[in-house]
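Moderator note: this is an archived Q&A kept for reference. The question asked for a predicted structure of one protein chain; the sequence and the answer are reproduced below.
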Amino acid sequence: MTAPPLDAVRRCHGVLNALHSTVYFTPYLDKELAAYGIDDPMAAYLAGRAAPMGPVGAGPVTATFYSFHHDLVARHVPRVWDLAAPETVWAARLRAADATLRRALGDRAVDGPEVAEAAELALRAAEGCRRPGRPLYAAHADRPVPGEPHLALWYAATLLREHRGDGHVAALDGAGLDGLEALVSHSASGEGMPKEIVMTKRGWTEEDWAAAEERLRGRGLMAADGTLTPQGRRLRRDLEETTDRMDLAPYERLGARDTGRLTELADGLVGEAARSGVFPPVLLGFFTGRDHTDKHSGGGTGGGTGNDAEGTPR
């Protein structure tokens, strides 16, 4: 079996991450958890993603999510577990994924052969993931595979996303970038989320951001105007290439041909989700590789790297 090249690994991850991320842009999880008293959208996000780890405290969530201010995390965790047990939250997240995919794709596509084929391929890729050193992936991998093909696909995309994300966190830490420096440099690279979106979702202040920029300038990674220096651009490129290598195993298991087929199928589904209006217009380019002012554009091959340490703006 021929292993895919690293750029193919990144493309496949990009569209799977976009498919997974649809759940962040619909109201279903917030509504599900509001019934239990979790009525803050940030609390719902933290609980939904952390639930597979069990009733953990703020420390493990800050450690694994990486780019969130600890005070923001501690505002909601572990209080959320007093309102809804992790098992309850996970079940709510699956219901939210079901409602999201049915809205984004339509019942006919959800129950169609392309979704079933994509689910089979994505689950096979996930069999190549590795638990050691991957805490968020490992926690999700302990969950049973949902029986419905569209939820199995969303679950497999989540496994692959968290597997890559755990590796990316290791790469960031190895490069000496803390969570905020990762956000600032990613945004400055042109590949990450715009600062104005990041600042509303991670708990950092303008003073925090300015201090991180100054630290990056002190390392020769950022210029006075806030753009990355050649050294900074090289570091960001090296980080993504390191993450690609650390993320190769699932796609090696799948092989080059089936990785390409999974990319094709997921790309078509992301395009359908984009046409349904699930993604906010300002973020279409990040998730689809298309002009993010065109709300009716179809899917591309993923505009952003989608490593959640720096990526999805929720």
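Archived answer notes: The radius of gyration is 18 Å.
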